[in-house]
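Notes from hallway chat w/ T.B., transcribed later so I don't forget. T.B. wanted the structure written out for a chain they're using in a teaching module, and asked if we could keep both sequence and structure tokens in one place. Agreed to drop them here.
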Amino acid sequence: LYHSCEQFFKRRGMRTIEFSEFSVRQEKNQKYLDITDHIQQQATAWKLVDAMMHVLAKHTTCAVMIQETESQLLRRDYLATLLEKLASPTGYYAHDDPDTRTENLNPDEEERKNGYAHIRAMLSRSDIGVPVQDGKLVLGTRQRILFFDFDNLNSIRTRHIHVTAIRNVEH
């Protein structure tokens, strides 16, 4: 008998997979959260040496990306301006129109007017892959893992992020 799943995998030269989920709370109008340290802590807790981590934002109005946290880039020049032009909160979205929308409605909840947030998320990524080498996330000098909730203009929201790691099991 094998005393652990890892022992079972080791004998067969297979990989093991780790799973975790954590919540983030993003304040009203907060542009992004830097979750790099949390992801590194998870890699350390799992004792990853050489692995691949997958980070997924579990909401259709959220995104995860690797980018530097320079404020001019994220808040003024690039991201905020671009997203405002492409998907303004004041624009018309059929998703927000109760006369045309017929899908994914919850009769027990008032529907949020967040079509713009869905469009912004579609233009971004809901997941990323991050290599781990010698126990550390493999990121460039200024790269950070950032979480964006594009639907937080009028409220504080709690969102969930799923993390998976795949690693080789050494013999």
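Follow-up for T.B.: The first strand starts at residue 15 and ends at 26. Might be a good example for the class.
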